[in-house]
């Protein structure tokens, strides 16, 4: 992680559009209720999920399909062992500024690759917790 906790508020203020990689159709999963919380707080959220679903979010099946303005801030909900492949996809895109990896998820090597590419990386942090702390 190359972002200090004290930078979280300004990072979120600067990025009001978020692409959520792994946005689940199950409202009981964090990968659904965390994006819903951010949407309810005024962020414009789209999801990436292999199967299309209608749960109040625009869903794309791949990151490449997501409009560029949403790909500046990518919130990742995938198991740690999947992060290298997720990062491969992210690094193929232009314009990614922030990769926020949710609480309980981290992969040092994958994060280092993103950091080397000039991307800000936050890992093992929950958007709900940080939003409530800073706003």
From TrEMBL:
The residues forming the signal peptide are: none
Where does the CoA-binding domain lie? 11-105
**Entry-linked InterPro entries:** CoA-bd, NAD(P)-bd_dom_sf
Q: Which residues form a coiled coil?
A: none
- Check the record and name the Pfam families matching this protein: CoA_binding_2
PANTHER family in the cross-refs: COA-BINDING DOMAIN-CONTAINING PROTEIN (PTHR33303:SF2), CYTOPLASMIC PROTEIN-RELATED (PTHR33303)
Protein name listed in UniProt: CoA-binding protein
Q: Which organism is it from?
A: Bdellovibrio reynosensis
- Taxonomy of the source species: Bacteria, Pseudomonadati, Bdellovibrionota, Bdellovibrionia, Bdellovibrionales
